[in-house]
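Co-fold these.
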Amino acid sequence: MNNNSQATTQQANLDPVAEGVEHEKKVHRIRPKPRPKKKKKKKILQNWELYLFVLPAVLYFAIFHYIPLYGAQIAFKDFIPSEGIWGSPWVGFENFTRFFESYYFWDLIKNTLGISLYSLAVGFPLPIILALALNEVKDNLFKRSVQTITYAPHFISVVVMSGMIIAFLSPATGIINHIIVLFGFDPISFMSDPDWFKTVYVFSDVWQNTGWGTIIYLAALAGVDPQQHEAAIVDGASRWQRIWYINIPALIPTMIILLILNTGNLLAVGFEKILLLQNPLNMESSDVIATFVYRSGILDAQYSFASAVGLFNAVINAILLIAVNQIAKKRSETSLW
Amino acid sequence: MSAIKDTKQDRIFKTFNYAFLTVALLIVLYPVIYIVSASISDPNLVSQGKMWLFPKGITFEGYKRVFGNEQIWIGYRNTILYTVLGTAINLAVTLPAAYALARKDFAGRNVIMAMFVFTMFFSGGLIPTYLLVKGLGLVNTIWAMVLPNAAAIWNIIICRVFFQVSIPKELEEAAIMDGCSTTKMFFKIIIPLSTPIIAVMALFYGVGHWNNYFNALIYLSDQNLYPLQLVLRQILVLQEMSSGTAGATAMANKAELAAIIKYAVMIVSTLPIIIVYPFLQRFFVKGVMIGSLKG
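Predicted complex below.
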């Protein structure tokens, strides 16, 4: 058995004894002069298969992530398709200043920040509250049903979700407005009233993702030592006190990590849904940087200008991420890096 | 522990807690039940608000229309193709890479890992990516739907952590002692031991492909390549909008048609996920929890 497998597959071999016998002829071709000191090189050659293993991923990231990173320089150029990225003339910060000086600049900033902060304020605490509440349930069947059902909407596609929102909120035929009318109020045309857009966006997100967001917190709560709770019970702590003094502190590291990640995406709001819910009537409160990039870049083919807007967005995000991470590191010793 | 009786305060808390969770449950459940009921109800009763919970004036007209619509079938076929092909590519890229990066004796793993993670925080953005895909000649081919998302860094991290934590190192050492090559070890030992994480990955990626509409929106203009989500967008989002602004009878007819098939099409497009979800929910959760470990 031993010999068989060696005979058929004699490539990478970590066994120093076997290496001398089986491995030599294979390795020699790649390594002309084997020197005893070059340990690292030997390690690389022994594991050549591992390099083949990562090769597809390396190629993928190089092509689809690093080339666009290089291509982002068109933000500083006047991109002419026939000249290519390299051949197009430099224009410095012209595209950026055009964006900063445009009349929609502050509207876009206001909407982008408004929607993200609103989402953060409403969407961040809810999974924590739901997880704490679920954690107190000892009845397994009830707990499992709540979990199964609240996770599920996470898997509804953004298109179906938008379809649901539009159907439910329709002023004449939507169920929400039927309920509003039932209570004697006037129907609200949610989708064409700019004042409602952010609320619709945020609360539909809450409906879809709160359950799913509890998973990480429930895992953290499962890691709390039950002895802490037992000791607290003996000391006469109420349930509420145990949640406040044991469970919530246990969640803080997880909360901080998620908060950092969320802040880093502050300007990258879930724009697929916004794009689907956007219409000319709610545009003044629904247009965010990302949808603007899509419109001016993909639809109007203003590649350089749209890249500049996108780059501005990405840079602000990176700065926010680094800043929040630094603050978290100083204050609580929990950080991403 | 149970020797200590619940205090009155605790009992109040418990009642309140159950009430809170029940309300949360109903809020999530109601729209879903409503859609199911609406999909088999008389659309007039639905739009007049006479259908609240259970179907009224049962009709399968919506489903008939959906299944009679050629675009839906084309979309379905394309989505299945993109999902199967895309997920296969995802797994073929993710699993070997994650395994290699999990191996402690793999020189350069930290550099490669850093190169991957960097893309999580910095990207060229939508337009340069679009120009690249266009430049590669992928626009209006199925490859535009699968190659730009060939791997996700987060999933590579999850797999890597799994390989590090769940595969006993002694097993690998023993295999190497017996003269097993890395490739053979990967296929004969690692893969069979990793079915849970492979299931998780297949599901994460699969759902992603199934629900993906944005790649199609920017890279595809040929209707015959449209995935289901883009067909849905036309039915659910665009027609509804146009019916609100234009008054022509053609539009009204279209809107009526849209009203009939609206709910049915939501069900039909989500059905595959609804069917697999209860069986695989545990795997999904496991995947998220592995991902939440320090990685």
